[in-house]
Design a protein that fits this description.
This protein is mainly alpha-helical and 549 residues long. The chain is built from 21 helices and four strands. The strands form two sheets. The chain has a two-stranded antiparallel sheet with strand order 1-4. The protein has a two-stranded antiparallel ribbon with strand order 2-3. Strand 2 and strand 3 form a beta hairpin.
């Protein structure tokens, strides 16, 4: 099955549906770049001939950049999660009620989303490296201030600033991964990101309880600030800029000398010849890839990226306009839905495990989150490595064509896991089941939560890779606004209905909402078709301005 070819530089065939790609070259007749380890898998997008193109970097260079992004995510995420285990001593020391402490956390989540309207355009305008460094050093400062923010006003201000400066954690690492890796391998590294994002949130309470018991609540904050400072130093010396201004998108035909011929079909595979032998000869070998970078060490660690037309205001407005795009809205809604279960778990863990008949000490409540870390690790592998293999297998069955909706079938697992876990957690607590049942429910809830992170983001990037930086901002705004709203609903919901009825209702609402993935599998391509012309015209505009990364 062949899809149309564009023949000239910058040409985009607006008849093509965004996200549908010729991922597997079953007959090996496509004159384009293929993966080194899987000869029939096409590299999407096709890398340029520039050795400084981040898609062309050597594996070691890519993994170093990935390591920096994951370290940033892990320690940023831990700094955001310190409050959960020290609510009681913090409330007393700062003269702030526990309800107001939790309200501050709600404002933090809100700014984690809406703050991206500044940070994501800033990173794409002036460089991701600069955004990582500025946000991390600022987060370190407000984290040190945390245990001294006395009174409700100071505490809310601290949480608002924490959310704003930490906001890049929500979208910047995903765009870094999209800069570095191809479509057939991207979800694997999204799984790693999901592990560090969710794992850090669950791991922080494990150690924070012991830090509080040993040296006091202030050092819960101070240790996180020290970790942020150490990470900042590592990033300063080892994190490279991954922004690269592309002149082509999607799959690009190769010329006879093995150089990418400017003429992408903007997401679709092409057949440059009906003669398989001729086409195979024009596919460059892996050894023909650019051998080395042209940048010196000092150029690599420069905090100044190349100048670009000022478009921060345009990108911020574009992120708001994308709220009306069905795939973008669904991705944010799906992501937000699964985050809500994480919030419900955090809001009730101390109450349930610390109360009768379990009577866990704060340090033991923290240790119970190890179950969540295990669930996160399992989900990261399932929605990462397995997800990529599943997508390639589906493409082989579909004559080599991969649709973004193929990945959504994996949501079938989390759709069943979520209601089961919530019933075990809430109904089990109401009937005082053995504590292991509740710990198991925490782990499976974390498993489903992590699935929501990886699959929702991967679906969005698979569909709109060339504007994914702005689309991710939209996705996170939806997600965190939902998270902020549920913070005001879960406590009265629990108080009015009790554990059993509350969590039975939450479970069935969750089952209904999670099942929306079936609608996207059925009509997702139709929704993508609806925004086809708008998408390609936006991509064309960005190519002309040098804004496609």
């Amino acid at each position: 099955m062949a899809l149309p070819i564009a023949s000239n530089h910058g040409d985009i065939d607006e008849s093509l549906v965004p996200g549908t790609v010729h991922l597997v070259d079953l007959e090996q007749i496509m004159a384009t770049r293929h993966a080194k380890d899987q000869k029939d898998v096409v590299l999407v997008p096709t890398p340029s001939a520039d050795p400084d193109d981040s898609l062309n970097w050597a594996p070691r260079r890519k993994y170093l950049a990935l390591t920096c992004a994951l370290l940033y995510t892990w320690f940023n995420g831990m700094a955001l999660s310190v409050v959960y285990s020290v609510l009681v001593p913090l409330s007393t020391a700062l003269s702030v009620t526990e309800a107001d402490l939790n309200a501050g956390t709600g404002y933090m989540f809100l700014l984690l989303g809406w703050g991206l309207l500044f940070w994501q355009p800033f990173a794409l305008q002036y460089g991701k490296r600069l955004a990582y460094l500025v946000s991390l050093i600022a987060l370190m400062a407000v984290t040190v201030w945390g245990p001294y923010a006395r009174g409700n006003g100071q505490w809310i201000a601290n949480r608002v600033l924490t959310g704003f400066f930490a906001a890049p954690i929500e979208a910047l690492p995903e765009t870094t991964i999209a800069d570095l890796f191809f479509a057939h391998e991207r979800a694997t590294y999204m799984g790693w990101y999901a592990f560090t994002l969710a794992g850090s949130n669950f791991f922080a309470p494990v150690i924070s309880g012991f830090i509080n018991d040993g040296v006091g609540y202030r050092w819960v904050f101070f240790f996180q600030a020290i970790f942020c400072a150490a990470t900042w130093v590592f990033l300063f010396f080892f994190m490279e800029e991954t922004n690269y201004d592309r002149r082509t998108v999607g799959i690009v035909a190769e010329s006879s000398d093995g150089v990418a011929e400017p003429g992408p079909d903007a997401e679709k595979g092409k057949e440059a010849s009906t003669d398989p032998t001729d086409a195979i000869e024009r596919v460059p070998s892996p050894d023909g890839l650019p051998p080395a970078a042209t940048k010196t060490f000092w150029q690599k660690i420069s905090v100044v990226d190349k100048p670009r037309p000022f478009m921060m205001h345009y990108r911020a407005w574009q992120s708001l306009k994308l709220l009306s795009w069905p795939v973008v809205f669904y991705s944010g809604f799906s992501y937000g839905t699964y985050l809500i279960y994480f919030n419900i778990l955090n809001a009730t863990a101390s109450i349930i495990l610390g109360g009768s008949p379990y009577n866990f000490q704060p340090s033991l409540v923290g240790l119970s989150y190890i179950s969540c870390v295990i669930g996160v690790a399992a989900a990261s592998a399932f929605t990462g490595v397995f997800s990529d293999r599943f997508v390639i297998r589906q493409a082989r069955k579909n004559k080599g064509i991969s649709e973004p909706e193929h990945r959504l079938w994996l949501f079938a697992v989390s759709t069943l896991v979520i209601p089961s876990s919530l019933i075990l957690w809430g109904v089990g607590a109401a009937h005082e089941v053995h504590w292991f049942g509740l710990i198991f429910a925490m782990g499976t809830t974390a498993f489903a939560n992590t699935m929501g992170i990886t699959l929702s983001v991967s679906y969005l990037i698979d569909t709109y890779r060339d504007i994914s930086g702005d689309a991710l901002t939209t996705c996170i705004i939806i997600r965190n606004t939902m998270s902020f709203a549920i913070g005001y609903g879960i406590t009265p919901w629990l108080d009015n209905l009790g554990y059993q009825n509350c969590f039975i209702s939450v479970a069935f609402v969750g089952l209904a909402i999670c099942s929306v993935f079936l609608i996207m599998i059925k009509w997702g391509k139709t929704f993508r078709e609806m925004k086809r012309l708008e998408y390609w015209r936006e991509v064309k505009k960005r190519i002309d301005l040098g804004l496609v990364h």
